[in-house]
Amino acid sequence: MNIQVIIESIEHALVIAIFVFAMMVIVDYFNVLTKGKMNRTMKVGRLRQYTIASFLGSTPGCLGAFTNVSFYTHGLISFGAITGGMIATSGDEAFVMLAMFPKQAILLFILLFLLGIILAGVTDKIIKIFKIKTSENCGISTFDNKNKECKCFDISVIKNITVTRILMVLLALTSVILIVTGTIGSQSWDWKRITITILLSITCFIFATIPEHYLKDHIWKHIVKRHLLKIFLWSFFAILFVHIGLHHLDLELFVKNHMLWVLVIASLLAIIPESGPHLIFVMMFAQGLIPFSVLLTSSIIQDGHGMLPMLSYSIKDSFLIKFFNFIFGLTIGGGLYLLGF
Hints:
- This protein is mainly alpha-helical.
- The protein has one domain (about 5-145, about 215-340).
- Helices cover about 70% and strands about 0% of the residues.
- It has helices spanning about 5-35, 35-40, 45-60, 65-75, 80-90, 95-100, 100-130, 165-180, 190-210, 210-245, 250-255, 260-270, 280-285, 290-300, 310-315, 315-340.
- The longest helix has about 35 residues, at about 210-245.
């Protein structure tokens, strides 16, 4: 295998990881700034629950899914709502899709949002008809941020600079330099390069002004340690897999001749409660190897690692959510595939 291919794959994966990292930091920052407001807007009405849960699920990253789990374990939303929220969730892969094919990604998110609302109602109807017992009213929270109040903007922290803050600021500044100088990513000042530069600049500001506990608990322990390396590695191997498949294994011919099998494989891999496997199909879609229906099927069923806190709360409910999503995803995706999408 050509060493240049590996270098190009590393560079491409690095750009994706930087973009995802910046977006995750900004989304997390916004989530903390608005903490508590979503709880106060939650009402008894099922349509409101479905809409809020699906909206949270359709936001990039796992935070929306985690919030939905918190609502569910508090008994604030129904089983159908949490199922719809997981249908709308694309996990960390959403950031990657925005980086690679933003127009199609936004269309996908809107579609998942609408499907989440509709299928949430369908799920609650099925649960009621077949009298399936769930744990939605136990009122126990397994995902709860310890920092209920957080002063996110605090310029006084600059007076007491810690090693962690220096490292995080240097990481963001190094990323800015790599992007601005064209060392990695686009060589021309297109919208992607401008967008990443702006996002990284905002990230630098956040790192310089957030409290130390926020920097360590939210940014370092959660985003950097739990997400960043995984995103880079999965992106790298997914890109490398697609490249090797295209140039050495005739992946394009296999996919075209066995698209239904690809659809089934995408559905089965999507059951895994982890960010990463779905990236293979994201890369394949970006290369034009699979149709939109396969990407949609995988997106409906998979939810990144948004299901992980749910597993610790109720294995039965987690299994039921995955079962409904698998059936919905395979039915809708398969139907669209047969219609030529």
